[in-house]
UniProtKB/TrEMBL annotation:
Keywords: Monooxygenase, Oxidoreductase. Residues 2-92 form the ABM domain. The lineage of its organism: Bacteria, Pseudomonadati, Pseudomonadota, Gammaproteobacteria, Moraxellales. The keyword Oxidoreductase applies. This is Antibiotic biosynthesis monooxygenase. PROSITE patterns: ABM (PS51725). GO terms for molecular function: monooxygenase activity. InterPro entries: ABM_dom, Dimeric_a/b-barrel.
Amino acid sequence: MVIEQALIKIKAGQEQAFEKKFYEVSDVFRNAQGCQKFRLLRGIEHPGHYALVIQWDNIEFHTDIFIKTDEFKNWFKAIEPFLADKIHMEHFEKTI
């Protein structure tokens, strides 16, 4: 199992519109091969900061399969207008 964490910064004042659009296009994760579950978290101190946390069966489902799909490309096009900065993404694995 691999955890992907994508840190997303949204343009000021666009938080509700972003959340609505994210919800509308979130089936991309529900239907993605190898995606076990996901959640979108909003920052408390910085409400325009979000963490998208996705649990994958393995890293290849994300890096070699998912991001090459038309579904992912359409998802990114849908949220791109809300982005204040480049998405910062990392993968993690359980250690303890």
